């Protein structure tokens, strides 16, 4: 972390990711129906980090924006891609055993920094409706 006397700018980064968990048998259907290519996908038991098997299936669509873009822009960009297919994602989210959420990340080297999100940027979680999870990491 930079010290208070430092003239170094504060570094920060954001991300926004639509996640569909426990729906491996639907991965191909998601792509066929929506035309969206996942940023990442894996099935339960596939080798994961450090060779450990993944505990759940996962289909991921990340915001394509750089980490330096504000969270509002990440959410808006992701919503632009998902909005035409919102009925399909709502149906997925309503199915028993399938979890759909919006995972957002915030990283900063300043422990006293924060961020804001404009209400319209949250349209994606209201329209689908899905939970919003935020991971905050101070480096």
TrEMBL record:
Pfam families: DUF4279
Protein name, as recorded: DUF4279 domain-containing protein
InterPro entries xrefs: DUF4279
